[in-house]
Design goal:
single chain, 391 residues, alpha/beta, Rossmann fold, 2 domains, 6-stranded parallel beta sheet, elongated
């Protein structure tokens, strides 16, 4: 086909890589040979044939100080990404999530001669903190694809054309065969299964991992029949396995690859998770969950007392305006506190008052009618066509 649309996708964290893979699939499904795709991504995008222009494994940063320590590396990768997009001759660059990295790429591309169309996919969480980022984004990109209906008017008020497309993460299958999982791993039908999700970033592993291990050790004492399962993100799998092997307090933990994640989720009675996409997926699966996160103290002070404005940090709780997912951050991110909350959730389940159905209802409300990746693909190609027709 003559003159295919050349689309450069950029994703530097696992959640963005998953969004990018969904968008690649939708673009090819709708347009076939009418699109050429290049960019930056991880395992999921590479599995679809993308040859990433940079290695994203070192770019999973959490917290202000972590970002400052890695600033030189980040700028180098930003510049490499910009050069790759220009060399590709992109009609559009789609910048997926990851505010700090993507805004730098956008601003550098803006300064180039005949810059490509700049599309941000997933806006910063201005409803929770830093509302001024809406204005910064409006001056840095041409269009925003937002995954939340409630934040679109905020960006439009800042002068940024915005299209609500929905959240693909809520449309992916999150459950599998829990009974088969128990059978494969020799787990008795009535045994409580506690899922532990360590996050996806090395910084989370270092800062929150020890707290989660403390909680596991305490839970093993008060729940001797419990079985612990942990689906691990590839970026931290080796490190988490080493951490667990070196901690003699811990019971046996089933460490799992992503291929078993859905079956494991269906087998879980309750879960303990680092806050992020995983908590929303657990809500969709109806798994009662305790969520936690922890930052460096300077970062925490800035976020908690200056920037952060929302009542909750879990999206499901924000959507429901209720603490359906139990939250413990920073000073509350302690092994005994987390273990006590997980025990309380197990008691709810045993008494027949599980909050799982309420979690599913709230998450399904966020999900909407599906087809978000298809809407995002149509928006991207439509914006390219509109620019070419007026250029």
């Amino acid at each position: 086909m003559n003159n295919p649309k050349r689309i450069f996708l950029v994703a530097v964290e696992p959640s963005g890589d998953a969004l990018g893979a969904d968008l690649m699939t939708a673009l090819r499904s709708d347009h076939g040979e009418g699109v050429e795709i290049a960019g930056v991504g991880g395992e999921k995008m590479e599995a679809l044939g993308l040859k990433s222009a940079i290695d994203i494994s070192e770019l999973a940063i959490l917290g202000l100080l972590d970002g400052l320590k890695s600033y030189g590396t980040i700028l180098k990768r930003v510049n490499e990404t910009v050069e790759a997009a220009m060399d590709f001759g992109a009609d559009a660059v789609v910048l997926i999530d990851s505010w700090g990295f993507m805004i730098r790429v956008a601003q550098r591309l803006q300064k180039r001669e005949n810059p490509p169309l700049l599309i941000k996919y997933v806006g910063p969480q201005i409803w929770a903190a830093r509302p001024g980022r809406a204005r910064v984004l409006a001056h840095s990109v041409d269009h925003l694809l937002t995954i939340h209906a409630f934040d679109a008017p905020m960006f439009e008020a800042a002068g940024l054309p915005t299209t609500f497309v929905g959240n693909p993460a809520l449309e992916r299958p999150v459950t599998g065969d829990g009974l088969a999982f128990r059978d494969r791993h020799g787990i008795a039908p009535g045994a409580p299964v506690i899922g532990v999700l360590f996050g996806s970033r090395q910084s989370e592993r270092r800062r929150i991992g020890p707290v989660l291990r403390d909680a596991i050790a305490l839970l093993a004492e008060v729940e001797p029949d419990a079985v612990f399962v942990s689906p691990l993100a590839p970026a931290i799998a080796e490190g988490i396995a080493a951490d667990i092997a070196g901690d003699p307090r811990l019971p046996h933990i089933h460490l799992l690859g992503e291929d078993e994640k859905r079956d494991a989720t269906s087998a879980m009675t309750v879960a303990l998770a680092v806050s992020g996409t995983a908590t929303t997926e657990l809500a969709l699966a109806g798994v009662p969950t305790v969520a936690t996160y922890k930052l460096g103290w300077l970062s925490w002070f800035i976020y908690r007392f200056i920037l952060f404005k929302a009542k909750y940090f879990s999206l499901v709780n924000i959507a429901a305006d209720e603490e359906l997912i139990i939250e413990h951050a920073q000073t509350g991110a302690k092994g005994d506190v987390l273990a006590e909350s997980v025990t309380a959730l197990l008691s709810e389940v045993r008494s027949g008052h599980s909050r799982g159905p309420a979690l599913q209802t709230a998450a399904l409300t966020m999900k909407g009618d599906g087809q978000s990746s298809a809407r995002a693909a149509r928006a991207v190609t439509g914006l390219i066509t509109a620019r070419k027709s007026t250029g």
